Amino acid sequence: MIKADFHTHTTYCDGKHSPREMVEAACQRGFTDLGISGHGLSVGEPGFGMSQADLDQYKQELYTLRQEYAGRIHLYIGIEVDCLGPVQEAEYAIGSTHCVEKDGELIIVDDTEEQLRDGVERLWKGNWYDFARDYFQLEATVYERTGCDWVGHFDLLTKFNEGNRYFDEERDEYLEPALAAMKHLNEAGLPFEINTGAISRGYRTSPYPSKRLLKELCAMGGRIMINSDSHSRENIGFGFSQALKLASDCGFTRITVLKPGGGFREVGLEEFRV
Asked: Can you tell me the distance from the alpha carbon of 233 to that of 195, in angstroms, rounded to the nearest whole number?
């Protein structure tokens, strides 16, 4: 049996709690495995993420905590890298697309709804499907650009689209570029995380990726992880019961998890505790 969360953030980036507080909270809640994955630098957000000096300190602190908590929890030292770079290294990397470039301007897709809406209006003439096409064309390159170990929140551009507020996620104009990107990344052997972060922060009522996309991923023979993208100790493992049910409903029978010493292993849904 395993109780694990491999996508979490601390005060080294935009999280609310220190690495020690996150590890202690995970231990108190019975987690067997925890990955901390601070944001790397982002070309689209100057000053955001860990500088190389901060990253070195972060890795040393987590290594010390790993030794201190040995026997209580398996601690993994990760980083979340943006598709547009720069690329920084840790023991594992989550590849995410937070920004899209258009006409020499970088638009952050998950900062504020107003900022994204304004960007789509100005740069894509209000055509959300053209925006989605450009997003997924970039997302398809996340492995080639970053060498990541898995795909983070694949359809992050839907963060503010609850109830199809801006575009219909079932229309071919949206699904075709999304599925082309998913197929390409799946063929590279990357797992896709079911990410509950936008639920805990009140933006969505369901995880990333959407149920439709997860069903297609399952049909492709793809692999999944379940992660919280937690930015606070209270939200470690948030919504995992919902994510596990979604995985089952979409046809998945196994979950990919990190293993001590490096690499992945597969566990059955019944082995993953929530």
From this structure: 16
